[in-house]
Amino acid sequence: MQIIELNDENREAVKKSILDRTPTTFGEQEKTVKAIIADVRERGDAAIFDYTEKFDHAKLDRDSFEVTKAEIDEAYQKVDPDLTDVIRKALVNIRDFHEREKQNSWITTTDKGTILGQKITPMQRVGVYVPGGKAAYPSSVLMNIVPAKTAGVDEIIMMTPCGADGKVNPAVLVAAHEAGADRVFKAGGAQAIAALAFGTESVPKVDKIVGPGNIFVALAKKAVYGSVSIDSIAGPSEILVLADETANPRYVAADLLSQAEHDQMATALLITTSRELAEKVSAEVDGFVKVLSRKEIIEKSLENYGRILVASSEQEAIDAANEFAPEHMEIDMKDGFEVMTKIRNAGAIFIGEYSSEPLGDYFAGPNHILPTSGTARFFSPLCVDDFVKKSSIIHYSREALKEVHADIEKFAKCEQLTAHANSIAVRFENDQD
Questions:
Q1: Shortest CA distance to 143 belongs to which of 425, 370, 371?
Q2: Buried b (16+ CB within 10 A) or exposed e, 109-138
Q3: pLDDT, tens only, 94-109
Q4: Which of 91, 201, 271, 358 has the fewest beta carbons under 10 Å from its own?
Q5: C-alpha distances in angstroms, 6 versus 86, 173, 280, 345, 349?
């Protein structure tokens, strides 16, 4: 990996490379996506079937579009029982973590006759998109569905591409069934997002769409936002490791590559205060790349977006990390928990040499659907809150309103909204005092 000194120029160059990968900058594919969405809105299922045949080389009809119970039973027969057990163990951890995120409705009252509160209501129907094609992601199934189920969503509709044989990956189906998907349809790409957003003869319209996907999925989510809610527009994966001279270079190298293998546009950054560690990590990376199965993807990712930045101080390293606002951040430093308190911007923070990023991807419990492309400055991981709505509750007795009605009227008149003022004043127009 390329080793460079951390300075203002290099920091800006790395930040720009991260932000330039966001799907919101890809304009040339937007016309294609908008055309697909318009077609699905007009022709419904027929458009879905045509695009599935065109892109996935699978022939579907109304009878084969939705996954059946028989197909789910078949998936259980095909999946290694040990993997099913692992999925169930992971589910326990993920559910436990997300249960702790739940909020309850609340009410507060005063003796003056006011009642204020907040009502928490789960969404009625949510769409979950799960990528397919080059790889299967049963872990994403769990991470999308569990917080929705925990929130109390009534119905969860899952969309995922099928193979040319019309079958969905068995591990994905097992994960969907274990997590609690209500219905699963065989569709991918922008056409699947359009079906969830606007509905078809077979697919019910949802209130929100969550889940990662390729550039066409990301742009489709962007296009339908407003007709439905979405979680975020996810970009390529990122990892940033903060390390000092106490870090194990072999562990650091392995962790950097765990994200570089995702995609040729994935980012893998090491910021360290030790030049010696930087050189050792670079050598370990070279050794791993020679034997890892996704060598070509990793090499391209590291060439374009992999860097080792050597900082002059711990504070300079922390400042740069906060500026990059990475999806995943690992802290391999002697005072890891103290450093963590200084981190403002990160999707997930892993502390210590035995807290490798894949622990969060698969098993620990926190959600692995995280903000990318610097959006950890203002976005959070997918959570239970993403699947509920909050309604304010307001009640004033006549006596309580009488105490403040003049203040409200004055405020309304200040804004020249006389009907607002009148709405309050009319309730006291017959008062003699």
A1: 370
A2: eeeeebeeeeebebbebbbbbbbbeeebbb
A3: 999 999 999 999 999 9
A4: 201
A5: 41, 46, 18, 19, 22
Q: What are phi and psi of 311, to 5 degrees?
A: -95, 155
Residue 326 CA to residue 17 CA, distance in Å, equals: 13
β-pair type (114-122, 106-109): antiparallel
Closest of 4, 33, 405, 16 to residue 218, by C-alpha: 33
pLDDT tens by residue, 314-370: 999 999 999 999 999 999 999 999 999 999 999 999 999 999 999 999 999 999 999
* Strand 183-186, strand 208-210: pairing: unpaired
DSSP state of 420: H
Map tokens 């309850």 to a residue.
104
Nearest-angstrom CA–CA distance, 421 and 60? 60
CA–CA distance, 347 with 371 (Å, rounded to integer): 6
CA distance 138 to 184: 13
Within 13 A of 405's CA, how many CA atoms are on the CB side? 17
Note if the pTM is more than 0.70: yes
Q: What are phi and psi of 81, to 5 degrees?
A: -55, -30
Give the pair of three-digit tokens for residue 243: 């390390």
Q: Strand ranges (DSSP E) for 249-377?
A: 267-272, 306-310, 328-332, 348-351
Q: How far apart are CA 271 and CA 333, in angstroms?
A: 11
Q: Beta strands of 226-345 (E only): which ranges?
A: 229-230, 238-243, 267-272, 306-310, 328-332
The 3-state DSSP class for residue 15 equals helix
C-alpha distances out from residue 134 to 213, 254, 294, Å: 12, 22, 12
Q: What is the mean pLDDT of the chain?
A: 93
Those residues whose C-beta lies under 8 Å from the C-beta of residue 141, and which sit 6 or more positions away, are 128, 130, 158, 172, 175, 176, 179, 181
Residue showing tokens 């692995």: 368
Helix (H) or strand (E) holding 126: strand 125-129
| Contacts for 352 with CB less than 8 Å, ≥ 6 apart | 331, 332, 336
- Are the CB atoms for 238 and 357 separated by under 8 Å? no
DSSP E strand boundaries for 361-428: 388-396
